[in-house]
Amino acid sequence: MRLHIRRNTLIIALAGVALFIGVRVGRSGHLTSAQEEDSSLGAPSRVSLEQGESFITLDRATQFKSGIVVSPLEPHAYAPELHVQGIVVEAGTSSVTQGSLAPEHVVLVQIVPSGRAHLLVAPPTASIQVADGTRASASLIVTPQASDVGRLPMYRLDLSERQASECFPGMSVTVSLPVGSLVDGVVVPESAVIWHEGKSWVYVRDTPAGPGALEKLPDRTETTRGQPLTLVDRFVRREISTDTPVAGGWFVAKAVSAGTPVVTTGAQMLLSEEFRSQIPSEE
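-> structure tokens emitted (283 positions)
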């Protein structure tokens, strides 16, 4: 009888130990998962402060896993424009453009009188935003002279039948007139721009040691002379101007230039990583 009681007691004790170990393992696994979720990039990264700027160092493997994409900016020439109001004075007149048998429709737009639109010399071409949101090229057909009182520039658009059908006399449109000389710069894609403290920024890949510095890190299997090596890059935030919107982004003539490697995907992740490093650790 006593042997039977001792045997049951031993079984209960072993079951308790097994339950205790299972709970510990489960909690340990839960903490590990939480720690992984807490890391915004989930891989080695360092944020260093140099001359008031924060530099984020990431290895190429981390960049790939995090979906970070870096693309060089392409050169772009931009002609400054003056945006004025115009009014459709005629719409629906049929015409046939030179070299094409497809019927087009002519729309005539006159500049609305204003201080900004008082131009002594109207440019020979302009672009006008039509009803579907696209910008159509227009040619000058009425050129007012300085002595012409009350006479304003008039532009002609040759549109498709659909576009012309959406225009009607008295309709207000935006006319963009080229002014000044061409300015060289780049177009920064919308996906590359992040906003912080009311300013617009991009992350630039800045690697002083060349296109990918070699650094010893223990998480790679590739070796050189027995030492593990990996490619790493540094990223720094640069403020840009978004005063000149263009198709696909913003035209920028300063801060970045053609060929500058800019983060086009994942910039918001880098911003989170930069400011996460500023949070004091609870140790």
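Residues 86 and 111 are 4 Å apart (CA to CA).
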